[in-house]
Design a protein that fits this description.
Layout: H1 3-6, E1 9-17, E2 24-29, E3 38-39, E4 42-44, H2 51-63, E5 65-81, E6 87-102, E7 110-116, H3 118-121, H4 128-138, H5 151-160
Parallel strand pairs: 1-6
Antiparallel strand pairs: 1-4, 2-3, 2-7, 5-6
Length: 161
C-alpha cells in the first residue's frame, strides 16, 4: 500500500449509548468526515492508543462525559470521498457504552445532542453506515451477516438484483 493510500484509510471508534428507556444518544457532527449529519458519537483512533481508549477519549472530548464500554457491536466499512473527490475508506468500530459520570455538553465537534428512540433515529439525516450500526445493535438475536458490514457489498448486492 502506498503512503497516500494509507492516509485515506481512517479508523474510527464509536460509542452506542442507550438509556434505560431505550433511547440512544446521537450528536450533530460539527467536524469531518460526517459534518452536518446526525451520528453516533465517536472519532478517530490515534496511533498511540487502543480502539477502546480512543472510544472513551472521544466521548469525553465530544460530550464531556466518562463512559464504560459494555460490549462490542461490530466493525463497519464506509467508502466515501472527501471534498476533492479523493476516495476515503472509513473503518468504524462500534461499542455499546454507558455513561459513568459527567454532564453532557455541546462542543465544536458535537454541536447538538439528542436522545432518540431507534425508530426515529432511522428517519433522520444520518449516514447509512450509522443507521446500519443502530439496526445491528437493536437486532442482537439475528445471526452474524458479513454482508451488512460493508457499504460496497450492499451496493453490489443491490445492483445484482
Amino acid at each position: 500500500m502506498k503512503r497516500e493510500e494509507a492516509d485515506r484509510l481512517i479508523v474510527m471508534a464509536l460509542a452506542l449509548i442507550e438509556r434505560d428507556d431505550g433511547k440512544v444518544l446521537i450528536i450533530w457532527e460539527g467536524d469531518a468526515p460526517y459534518h452536518g449529519c446526525w451520528v453516533i458519537p465517536g472519532g478517530y483512533v490515534q496511533l498511540d492508543e487502543t480502539v477502546e481508549q480512543a472510544t472513551i477519549r472521544e466521548i469525553r472530548e465530544e460530550l464531556g462525559v466518562e463512559v464504560a464500554l459494555q460490549g462490542f457491536v461490530g466493525v463497519y466499512d464506509d467508502f466515501m470521498e472527501d471534498m476533492d473527490n479523493t476516495p476515503i475508506h472509513n473503518v468504524l468500530i462500534a461499542f455499546k457504552a454507558e455513561i459513568l459520570g459527567g454532564e453532557l455538553n455541546v462542543t465544536s465537534e458535537a454541536t447538538e445532542y439528542a436522545w432518540i428512540s431507534p425508530k426515529n433515529v432511522l428517519k433522520l439525516s444520518m449516514p447509512q453506515v450509522m443507521k446500519r450500526i443502530l439496526t445491528d445493535s437493536a437486532s442482537k438475536d439475528k445471526p452474524f451477516n458479513s454482508r451488512r458490514l460493508s457499504t460496497s457489498l450492499i451496493r453490489e448486492s443491490q445492483s445484482d438484483d
